[in-house]
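Form 12-C: Joint structure prediction
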Amino acid sequence: MDADARAIAITGMGAISTFGEGAGVLWDALRAGRSGIRPLRHERAADLRVRIAAQVPESFDPGTHFAERLLPMLDRTTQFALFAANEAVRQSGVDLRVPDLAARSGVVVGTGVGGETTHDEQSRRLYGEQASRVHPLTIIRVMANAPASVISMVHGLHGPAFAVSSACASANHALAQAAVLIRSGMADVILAGGAEACLSFGVLRAWEAMRVLADDACRPFSASRRGLVLGEGAGMFVLESMHHARARKARILGVLAGVGMSADAGDIVAPDPAGSAAAMRRALADAGLSPGDVDYINAHGTGTPTNDPAETRAIHDVFGAHAPKLAVSSTKSMHGHALGASGALELVAVLGAMREGVVPPTLNLDVPDPACDLDYVPNEARRLRVAAALSNSFAFGGLNAVLAVRAA
Amino acid sequence: MTQVLSIDDVRGKVHAIIARQGKIDGATIRDESTLRDLGLASLDAIEVIFEIEECFDLTFPEQGIDFATGTVQHLVDAVVAVQAAGAGGKP
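Section 2 - Result
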């Protein structure tokens, strides 16, 4: 298969994040080096040890975005996914209602846990308030495929549609799956990305018990790092075969040139640099890129003591002498760790960097760590022409997915 | 309110929890051993912390104690310190 047949055109993007509604506001904040991490907004915040988070602002009003008949079936996760998908489709200008195209269009949405807000609310009714029944649409809202299903309904997509789940790598796995579907010839257009909204009392308590959360700021690659900061949101993209995008003269935002996936098959939480390196190598090979072609890596960069040195080692392994020349940044320092949505928010960062020739920074990198010795673009964005980039996601459970992106 | 235990009682219980979680002979546990020395990987260490919190009905601070690389003595001291600070009880 020639390179053009393997490359996937990205023709639309949409997002919702701690910075509010839209991929534009997300990119503007990342380029400006603005943190979206704030005091936790939660009715039980006083009972929690979680102090900070990157939450979608209260100003987000689903009632102004979605049809009234649809609202009762939408968990917060699906609201985010649908919002982002609508924005992406609008931007792409693709008319998915044409019958022949509808049959060859689909949707793949990554989510770590699915409809947690609904699950939490209805469980509280049952176990806390001793209610005898739950809301009749509970199953419809909770199911992990709800975002994919609702997007297929709203946009009339009759091709392959399903959910993908791999914790913090869910979005990247979903985007990889979309690329595979398009390359295989099973679809011409796939809406793909990730969505997460799981900051319920129960889930926050569970994260506390893991003891991996920072209590003041997210400081990836800094010796002062104290853990990750949870976030929420969604990012969705319109992916098309290059042939299809060119035929309709679409504006191409970037090219998903390759994907690389691997499993550590080792520890359930501790990352294995060999697994991360394998995913990066496979993404490069799949894209037909050499290590020296890459200008920028949007790192997984969670800010946990374990991830950051392991990821640094993996980058050294893959890039060798080119590693010190790479710009590597963790935008999680700004948009938080939105779990199943993270890879999608980070793809917005990668596409922004390519479009504008500006690499977003890693915030709060105040104390160098000898175990983290790459150029992390500390604290301020940098002018840099980005022709090719990787975007890393390494999940709990040892599941890795890396995207290789080229400028259009 | 939980009864404050002597340091020897705390030590005995902490050793028992580590032995159970790590499936090791309690007699092999030394106070200067780290959990890693005793073969408890990262996730086992988190479970040991949880079991200790449950056993003594207390909550360790979010930061400041490196449970995987700290020693058994550190764990015992941390329990005693949290008890002495009156931080026992559910958060």
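Section 3 - Comments
Chain A has two domains: 8-247, 256-406. Chain A has a mean pLDDT of 97.
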